[in-house]
Amino acid sequence: MHDFNPSPAKPRTRGRPRLAPDAQASRQALLRAGLAQLTEFGYVAVRLDDIVEAAGVTKGAFYYHFRSKADYGAVLIAEYDAFFRARIAQSLERTDMTPLERLYDFTKLAEAGMARFGFRRGCLIGNLGQEMGALPEDYRATLIAVLAGWQEMTAACLRAAQAVCEIDANQDPNALAALFWTGWEGAVLRAKLERDPAPLRQFSAGFLRLISK
Q1: Where are the domains of the chain?
Q2: Distance (Å, whole) CA 213 – CA 203
Q3: Could you tell me if 135 and 73 are in contact, meaning their C-beta atoms sit under 8 angstroms apart?
Q4: In CATH, what number does 17-66 get?
């Protein structure tokens, strides 16, 4: 859904050496390839062969970094969450806009991210949620926690909107944030289906119109 730059691997524990530059590069290539493959085609449809071919590395390199596809997916979720929280903060922590303008800015930034890939890629977290019946069961709590984190960042922005009277004081920012992410993930799914930004624009305009005073 967005440009993705995986973080460098943390140094291994128990005295094991840091990864050599070529190993770091192969890990980052695998994570970038995974994001591209899974956000476009889904976890189940993508084979390990597809991932290593897209990354330009060997299966041996894959197993050097990850125990299994399930382990790889869990790392990718964590990397994507860290990246996307930074992307949310890029909009919601701006000081040159009102709180609701910041939320709108996030939706436009997200739309631009999808447009860069022709609306073929969606949100990794939303995509995995759609496939949960075929995924490792421990992904469920992880995906819920990721969405809850994004939701809390949004609720903080909405509380700020209440403080400057953009939203009625009787509204519940936590409930509104939950509504936003439920609706936004649906809009992303439909934008990917239709390969068109209209669902994103319709949802963001409707949500902001609904909650504004």
Answers
A1: 17-66, 68-211
A2: 18
A3: yes
A4: 1.10.10.60
Top CATH class of 68-211 equals mainly alpha
Q: What is the amino acid identity at position 34?
A: G
Q: DSSP labels for 109-130?
A: HHHHHHHTTTT----HHHHHHH
Please, which residues have CB within 8 angstroms of residue 108's CB and are 6 or more apart in sequence? 204
Asked if residues 143 and 129 have their Cβ atoms less than 8 Å apart, the reply is: yes
What pLDDT digit, counting tens, does each position of 95-137 carry?
A: 999 999 999 999 999 999 999 999 999 999 999 999 999 999 9
Instruction: Give the lowest-confidence range in 18-22, 74-78, 79-83, 177-181.
Output: 18-22
Residue 179 has, within 13 A of its CA and on its CB side, a CA count of 14
Q: Measured in Å, how far apart are the chain's first and last C-alpha atoms?
A: 31
Do 91 and 65 form a contact (C-beta atoms < 8 A)?
Answer: no
Q: Return the C-alpha torsion angle 164, 165, 168, 169, nearest 10.
A: 50
pTM higher than 0.70: yes
CB under 8 Å to 68, separation ≥6 — which residues? none
The residue type at 78: A
- Residue 77 CB: number of other CB atoms within 10 A? 19
